[in-house]
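[Automated response] Your request has been received and processed.

Submitted sequence:
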Amino acid sequence: MTCTAFGYSRGCCSLVSLVSSSQSDSAQPRRPKSAQAAEMGQLAENFVAQWLTEQGWQVIEQRWHCRWGELDLVMLSLASGLANSELAFVEVKARSKGNWDGDGLLAMTVTKREKLVRAAQAFLSAHPQWANLPCRFDVALVHARSCPPTVPVSLNLSLNLSSNLIQLGQPVAVGAYHLTLQHYIPGAFD
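Generated structure:
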């Protein structure tokens, strides 16, 4: 299926960034859970973007917004050359221990899928240069566990992880979290 069937589009974005504060945990005021969830979500998106980059994908857009919602990642496959490229709209679900929704998989309801398809259509309308590429919807499930920060990081600091450091099922300490890419589901909507 090509992107024209969905009406997707995308744009350029920086690669991986980390979210955290350069202050120690003891000096930080407690943030509301929603701020912590947003921070963890952005960190997980950056983590998945880094992993996909290591797999031969290029970030076209990250956190692209429209009236239908947000596309977490829009990625371009470069593995087979530009002529054989493919677009992936990646939904990243970050969860901590004790979550109620199957590590985010149960949050992928019919309504959520419809919103992502509409957002992808809007993206392709805004970026017609990508509209004829084959495209798919992928889902990345990330487990995040809080821990004392190992290295102070900021929103603008790249992960700078060496190639293949991120592996499925293996935790990586990043800022105030241990992140684990639990599952990556290509073509999750097929």
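Summary generated for your ticket: Residues 55 and 79 are 8 Å apart (CA to CA). The chain is about 20% helix and 25% strand.
If you did not submit this request, please reply to this message.
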